[in-house]
Automatic annotation (TrEMBL):
Residues 4-271 form the Damage-control phosphatase ARMT1-like metal-binding domain. This is DUF89 family protein. InterPro entries: ARMT-1-like_metal-bd_sf, ARMT1-like_metal-bd, PH1575-like. It comes from the Bacteria.
Length: 292
């Protein structure tokens, strides 16, 4: 996908919120110039995660902050790990554990500080307390079952912390039904927003379901030409790819790979553009969705 004017406005607004309360006008202006410069120098062929990665690096360097979302990441990982046993039990008790686990993984994509100004723990708890596995696209769910029955190698691209605990539940359910699968979990190599890094993924036990690797950068998506060698080989060699969140949707759209995108449709621009329902889960296959 390409960077759109709506994306540019959203990036500017997000970075203004980071510095608007600073007392030093000159520092605020210096940083906002960097924001505008990054957008002006962005290639039209790349989507928002590319300039966002550059801007996080600049922000951390200018203000001496290693990980701006460290506390949010730890808090939501801890919260979801606490909820994990009960949520997994719900899946296993359901007539269709895979459908419910997919729904939970999509609902967990609510934990996103890149798009949302606030992530409300109460709203998240309420969402997870009212599961709706029937909202999962039945046609794509059938394709997933068929693909997994024939697949050997699966790559699962993570998005956010907290959410990645629900990804672990989905992968455990998946392995229970398709134990022959070889799973690779793809995380960010460096900090960006509240995305899950390799360290974050290991901290919630994702190495118990597969090999955990980094994408080679702090890009909040999976832009194939910018992946490290290990990540590029893993995704190009996968029979099935699951990609969480909007950043992966933006960077892997039109890739031609057998990708299932799982996310909560939070961005009003993409919601309208692709005919999705705002704040509803989306399960989309890259090849079928973009072949129209």
């Amino acid at each position: 996908m390409n960077l759109t004017p709506e994306c540019a406005f959203c990036i500017v607004e997000h970075h203004w919120r980071l510095v608007k309360d600073l007392p030093d006008d000159s520092r605020r202006m210096e940083y906002m110039r960097e924001v505008f410069r990054a957008l002006a120098e962005s290639s039209d062929k790349y989507s928002a995660p590319i300039p966002t990665a550059r801007l996080q690096t600049i922000y951390c360097r200018m203000f001496g902050i290693e990980d701006p979302y460290r506390e949010e990441k730890r808090r939501f990982n801890a919260l979801m790990l606490e909820k994990m046993p009960a949520l997994k039990a719900l899946c296993l008790e359901n007539p269709d554990p895979l459908a419910l686990a997919i729904w939970m993984a999509m609902a967990g994509n609510y934990i996103d500080y890149g798009i949302l100004r606030e992530v409300d723990e109460n709203r998240l708890t309420q969402m997870l307390a009212n599961p709706d596995p029937e909202a999962v696209n039945a046609r794509e769910l059938a394709h997933i079952r068929e693909d997994l029955s024939r697949a050997q190698r699966v790559l699962y691209a993570l998005d956010n912390c907290g959410e990645c605990v629900l990804d672990r539940i989905l992968l455990e359910v998946m392995l229970a039904q398709f134990p022959h699968l070889e799973i690779t979990v793809l995380a960010r190599s460096e900090n960006v927003l509240n995305d899950a890094t390799v360290e974050d993924a290991l901290s919630v036990g994702l190495d118990t379901v597969g090999r955990v690797i980094g994408n080679g950068s702090n890009i909040g998506g999976t832009q194939i030409e910018f992946l490290g060698n290990d990540a590029r080989e893993a995704i190009l060699g996968a029979d099935v790819v699951f990609a969480k969140g909007q950043g992966n949707f933006e960077t892997l759209s039109h890739s031609g790979l057998n990708v299932y995108f799982l996310f909560l449709s939070k961005c009003p621009h993409y919601t309208k553009w692709y005919g999705l329902k705002h704040m509803h889960g989306a399960l989309i296959n890259e090849q079928r969705f973009f072949s129209h």
